[in-house]
Backbone:
């Protein structure tokens, strides 16, 4: 499969690959079926747009954008059911076409924040839960969904700065895979909640808890990143 994907990218053929079972959410299928390194490996292929939406709304927006762009793309979906984000409470999914957008601000009025929580796919809802806990501690956390790195890096410097202000050094990335692609985004003071080893065989909810993909762990990472950023 990788050979076909690579050749499609090399020739810039308008092929869309749709992959499911994207993480440890496979649970009982075990580590042989949990592609912890695949997202990083696919992002390393030049000319391929890798898209990992957070919910059904992002899927539809991203699918339309993939078709209109007519370039090689991979649409990465989960095995487990994901909650549909309440778009009356959070930002509309239309900005997913820009690769990354603010789902929820730390402070909706001032847009100020203490830390950026940046996630893809099934982990966006975890970041949103962490934001609520941090708010109770008077910590303003901005949640960013980044379904497609490639689309985001095509945007203007002004838009990239609007979404991820450089002055905010405290950052946490949340993705159920290896962290290799994330370090250029989270910087020196950021913390990656990731999976740097193969998974295990158990229920998805148990694995997410065991490997640290919980709101509480995101809160702890955000607290530590803020501490690092503030010296």
Residues:
């Amino acid at each position: 499969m990788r050979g076909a994907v690579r050749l499609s990218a090399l020739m810039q053929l308008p092929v869309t690959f749709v992959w499911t079972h994207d993480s440890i959410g496979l649970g009982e299928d075990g580590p042989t079926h949990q592609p912890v390194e695949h997202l990083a490996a696919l992002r390393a292929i030049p000319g391929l747009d890798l898209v990992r939406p957070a919910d059904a709304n992002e899927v539809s927006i991203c699918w339309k954008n993939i078709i209109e762009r007519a370039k090689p793309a991979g649409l990465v979906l989960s095995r487990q059911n994901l909650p549909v984000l309440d778009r009356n409470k959070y930002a509309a999914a239309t900005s997913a076409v820009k690769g990354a957008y603010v789902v929820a601000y730390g402070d909706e009025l001032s847009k100020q924040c203490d830390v950026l929580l940046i996630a893809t796919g099934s982990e966006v809802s975890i970041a949103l839960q962490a934001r609520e806990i941090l708010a109770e501690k008077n910590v303003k956390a901005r949640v960013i969904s980044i379904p497609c790195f490639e689309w985001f890096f095509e945007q203007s410097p002004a838009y990239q700065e609007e979404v991820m202000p450089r002055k905010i050094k405290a950052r946490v990335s949340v993705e159920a895979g290896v962290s290799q692609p994330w370090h250029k985004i989270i910087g020196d003071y950021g913390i990656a909640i990731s999976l740097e080893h193969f998974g295990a065989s158990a229920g998805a909810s148990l694995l997410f808890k065991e490997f640290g993909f919980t709101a509480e762990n995101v809160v702890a990472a955000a607290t530590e990143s803020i501490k690092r950023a503030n010296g």
In short: Residues 14 and 71 are 4 Å apart (CA to CA). The chain has one domain: 2-229. The radius of gyration is 17 Å.
